[in-house]
Design goal:
With about 150 residues, this protein is of the alpha+beta class. The protein contains four helices and nine strands. It has two domains: about 30 residues, no CATH class; about 110 residues, Orthogonal Bundle (Transferase(Phosphotransferase), domain 1), CATH 1.10.510. β2 and β3 form a beta hairpin. α2 packs antiparallel against α4. Belongs to the protein kinase superfamily. TKL Ser/Thr protein kinase family.
Length: about 150
């Protein structure tokens, strides 16, 4: 589908996501804002210049994003600094390929370990069960990364 063939675009609630319908087959696509800097790279390049309030704001935005997911009973499943983008000092959580909607009981999502081990709840190595607590563990590692560089 070429850009000039797009005849139907709907803006998302936050203005960063658009929904596009391909007129040839009726399939929908998502178009996202291009961001080339993940949190890890952002911290590597800017850590020396970041003030405490900058780090606190980033941590708060990530925690609020995770809280929003959890209020919808969605676990991310692969939260790490490579899956958090920074653009104009705004935080965006991405890569929901391993996310699942769950009930309050922990659930076995996969038959094998996936994701970045340094960010994974150690319980997941034993029983392969992810829950909201597993995401919170990953958030803790990210908070450490934000505070220490």
């Amino acid at each position: 589908m070429l850009v000039h063939d797009i005849n139907h675009v709907e803006k998302g609630l936050d203005g960063d996501i658009s929904q596009v319908k391909d007129p040839s087959n009726g399939h929908y696509f998502m178009i996202l804002q291009y961001i080339d800097k993940d949190l890890r790279d952002y911290l590597r390049e800017n850590f020396k210049h970041l003030q405490f309030l900058d780090k606190f704001r980033m941590a708060e935005e990530i925690a609020q994003g995770l809280w929003f997911l959890h209020t919808k009973n969605i676990i991310h499943g692969d939260l790490n600094s490579k899956n958090i983008l920074v653009y104009n000092k705004q935080i965006k959580i991405i890569d929901f390929g391993m996310s699942k909607q769950i009930n309050e009981v922990s659930t076995q999502l996969y038959s094998e370990i996936k994701g970045m081990p340094a960010y994974m709840d150690p319980r997941c190595f034993k029983d392969l069960k992810y829950d909201k607590k597993s995401d919170i563990f990953s958030l803790g590692v990210i908070l450490w990364e934000i505070s220490s560089g």
